[in-house]
Amino acid sequence: MLINMTQLLEIAQKEKFAxxxxxxxxxxxxxxxxxxxxxxxxxxxIEVHPTELAYAKxxxxxxxxxxxxxxxxxxxxHLDHGDTIQNVLRAIRCGFxxxxxxxxxxxxxxxxxxxxxxxHICHQLDISxxxxxxxxxxxxxxxxxxxxxxxxxxxxxxxxxxxxxxxxGVDTLAVAIGTAHGIYPDGFExxxxxxxxxxxxxTVAIPLVLHGGSNNxxxxxxxxxxxxxxxxxxxxxxxxxxxxxxTEILTTKGGWDPNNLFPEAILAGxxxxxxxxxxxxxxxxxxxxxxxKPWRKDSL
Length: 300
Description:
Aldolase_TIM; FBA_II; Class_II_FBP_aldolase; Ketose-bisphosphate aldolase
């Protein structure tokens, strides 16, 4: 069942669990997430960065939309880190039910203006909008923007968050509390500023989003969920396991047929996705959406 982010996270917020948002750009990654969600009766978010959307091509998402629409599990198809009106419109044309507009590297006023414009467009189409305030770090080889994970993180100011939500009308807000995109190098110990998260939650009523959820200590992610994070972005963690297994198979067994190469790799990825769903407490929560009406583009 394909729904929008507001429909998905309204229930997650009420029932106090989070939903994983997993980045995909091909069928192996997509299959890993969808099948894990179905096997565990867990709602999930299929997330696609503009560079992933460009790589996978629009036709791939016709299949994605059909597959999600015909699943008994609630899914959202979400644009991750959209930074222009153009890639937001492309996602809408592809059938996405939620978009992120990332103006976090702009001035506060320009971020508000861009986000407000996207909200105006998307809410007319029943598409949810995620905004971002503050700067999330970046580690190593990642396609996602951000400052240096040590020196370039600008924490979200709780009062700015309140103003931003009021002035833009966003449905969800990505906050910067010390995470970074990508995999942390050996010896680096991330530390989330949960005190800031708590202050933001006291000023903002909408669901909060944690980017850079990979490679963080489970205890900190669990604490963030308990404090009000309803969406956690995961990319590097499960992709790394898939391609580690694929490399192992190619190195030790050889071969070139996808049906011989990918099954074990997908299983490796599924283990990570399931562990994240357990951490977010979203397993066996699909039944909570039984009365939710599917999102239908053709009914708008």
